[in-house]
Design goal:
The chain is mostly helical. It has a domain of about 170 residues: Orthogonal Bundle (MetI-like fold), CATH 1.10.3720. About 75% of the residues lie in helices and about 0% in strands. It contains 13 helices and no strands. Helix 1 crosses helix 13, helix 3 runs parallel beside helix 7 and helix 3 packs antiparallel against helix 10. The relative contact order is 0.14. Its main location: membrane. Keywords: Cell membrane, Membrane, Transmembrane, Transmembrane helix, Transport. This is ABC transporter permease.
Length: about 280
Amino acid sequence: MTKRTRNWLLLAPAGTWFLVMLIIPLSVVLIFSFGERAPAGGVVPAFTFEQYANLPARWAAFKNTMTLAPIGTLSALLIAYPLAYFLAVKVDPKWRTILLVLVIVPFWTSILIRSYAWIFLLGGRGIPALLGWFGIEGVRLINTPFAVLIGIIYGYLPLMVFPIFVSLDKLDKRLLEASSDLGAKPWRTFLQITLPLSIPGIATGCMLVFILLMGEYLIPAMLGGGKVFFVGNALVDLFLQSRNWAYGSAVAVTLVFVMLITVTIYMRLINRLGANRDDVSIM
């Protein structure tokens, strides 16, 4: 057996899985997007751009997704980084495992139950009622973009914490000690050593959270109360309720295209930051 044949055989299982689970479904959705809605629902084969011409009708869903997904990702990063830094650098190793388990404990409970908990906390008998005791009346939190943002941060925070923690945990602590011995202030050590060397973890965490948020359905449906729609909510409506598979496919294809562009720009930015980090480390 030649080396080339052996390589193809090793790649065959993953390649088959990739073809069956990704390429073929996306191809079907792409074909459907050029079709038309059947009278009883579904799709009729055709070749028309009518569905793509109707995309502005779902502009609100795209706007909410492209606004709250980046804000949610950035907010999760701002909260997760200090937590990951504390766990990786400041905590005694004998307590680290226990604290890491506490970070993932929410994942042991269904996101549905956790969202119901936030419905109560943000509803009229939760935080608004507490604020009313202090004379702050008329605060409405549930069924708002703020409620959706809170649910996003809470639901996806562990996915941001762990990649950053891994990067910081692998950080050579001798670099921090050397920086301190050379007279660098803590903030300068952080900006020139800790932060640049943790960029791979930041990139991975942001990528995980952002991609999942782009297709999020449950959190906007429950905490947005039908008033804050994501593209995921629009897809459920088009495929399961309106049964307009052609239009739903066009929306789905557009979402994938937007994600590809966004992720490509993001990865190029990360690669440029990585190159700058290497230049700094050489200097």
